Amino acid sequence: MLRLTHALRDEIVRHLVAEWPNEGCGMLAGRDGTVEAVFPLRNIEIWDDLGYALYQAHPEDVLAAFQEIDDRGLEFLGTFHSHPGGGAYPSGIDVRKAMPAYPDAHYLIVGLKEHWGKGWERPGITDAEIRAFTIVDASVAEQDVLVDGVMLPKKRWWWDRPIPLIDKPSRARRRRRSTGGGRRLDTGGA
Length: 190
Ligand SMILES: [Zn+2]
Prior knowledge:
Elements: E1 2-4, H1 6-19, E2 25-31, E3 34-41, H2 59-71, E4 75-84, H3 92-96, E5 106-112, E6 129-136, E7 139-143, E8 145-147, E9 150-151, H4 168-179
This protein binds zinc ion (ZN).
Zinc ion is lined by residues 81, 83, 91, 94, 109.
């Protein structure tokens, strides 16, 4: 769970909107899941060879943020970044880049997608879809985000699904169908 104030939420989204249409990124710090400090970081890797948006935080900014987190006696709680034109769900790259050294880290993702409907305009901060995840061993788990005590919606989009490494559920379904087995619910007759 991540707890934020409206002011910190707006600080995150303002940075990401300012970076749009590039991805923006930053770090979150606080105590016991409560964010007390937001560190916007410079993005030094904006596009990959295929033209997909990316982020890679400037190492100087990361070091400075960790220094301040130590100085203030805070914990590193996770990172945030934007998906300009995309939904707030971890991409395959996000899953591969998850930090095994920080299994409790939250990956707060801000989707800035709504501007597509308005033409090529910089999105406003109210356009932001904000969700948070933990990513451990390529397994994505959505986490609660509370802004001033109010839980943000966990929307379900069609691309919200784990990375399909192994198609276990459909194999199980096929097996159940082929044997015709499985428990029957006793409805007690009509
Ligand atoms: Zn991402």
